[in-house]
Write a structure and sequence with these properties.
- This protein is of the alpha/beta class.
- It has one domain (2-205): Rossmann fold (3-Layer(aba) Sandwich), CATH 3.40.50.
- It is 29% helix and 20% strand.
- The protein has an eight-stranded mixed β-sheet, sandwiched between helices.
- α1 (11-22) packs across α5 (181-190) and α2 crosses α3 (78-92).
């Protein structure tokens, strides 16, 4: 399978790249700074570019079967500005599967189910900026005809891979407080072969 990974040099993204290569997939990574990519493999193609540049996106979409976005917010609007460009190029190439890494803030609140967690007292975050950006991503994907899945981790320490975690559609697993980067990446990567959570948000926690 040919997998396009956005945010491939980040904490979750780099784990996803490693997992895909380990299983023999071909991975294309669109990165701003190739020197930050600390992985070398014959099946890895690293393209220097910017997700806000349509020509760069076009150049890496040609052979993609699936897109995984582990981009973070970085205090900018990169997620919501780049996603329409990515979806546009995906549609041109008849690529419909996209998996993104979001935040538990955009899951439904257990205390007030009509609200998202970041909009309710359930969230302990002091700022909602990142959650609002991820919420906008959700809205864009919901309006699209893509087969999307948003993996929504809570607090993300580096930690180790355990393979022992809970997931729940639309909600954060009850009393979940954290999930490691490695386990989040593993579940995200698994979704390339899984249709169970198409057009869904998935909460993940221990």
């Amino acid at each position: 399978m040919n997998i396009l990974v956005l945010g491939a040099t980040g904490r979750v993204g780099s784990h996803i790249v490693s997992l895909a290569l380990k299983e023999g997939h071909h991975v294309t990574a669109l990165v701003r700074t190739p020197s930050k990519m600390n992985i070398a493999d014959k099946n890895l193609y690293v393209k220097q570019g910017n997700v806000l540049n349509i020509e760069d996106i076009t150049s890496v979409m040609a052979n993609a079967d699936v897109v995984i976005s582990a981009l973070n917010t970085d205090g900018t609007n990169t997620l919501t500005e780049s996603l329409p460009l990515v979806l546009q190029e995906m549609k041109k190439r008849n690529v419909y599967r996209i998996i993104t890494v979001g935040t538990a803030g955009i899951l439904q609140s257990r205390l007030t189910p009509s609200l998202l967690r970041y909009q309710s007292s359930e969230s302990k975050r002091k700022t909602t900026r990142a959650a609002k950006e991820h919420h906008n991503v959700l809205k864009i994907l919901e309006r699209s005809d893509m087969e999307w899945t948003i993996v929504c981790p809570t607090y993300l320490p580096d930690g180790h891979y355990t393979g022992n975690y809970r997931v729940e559609r639309d909600f954060l697993p009850e009393d979940g407080t954290e999930i490691s980067v490695a386990d989040t990446a593993e579940f995200t990567y698994q979704q390339i072969q899984c249709k169970k959570y198409v057009k869904s948000r998935v909460g993940i926690a221990y």
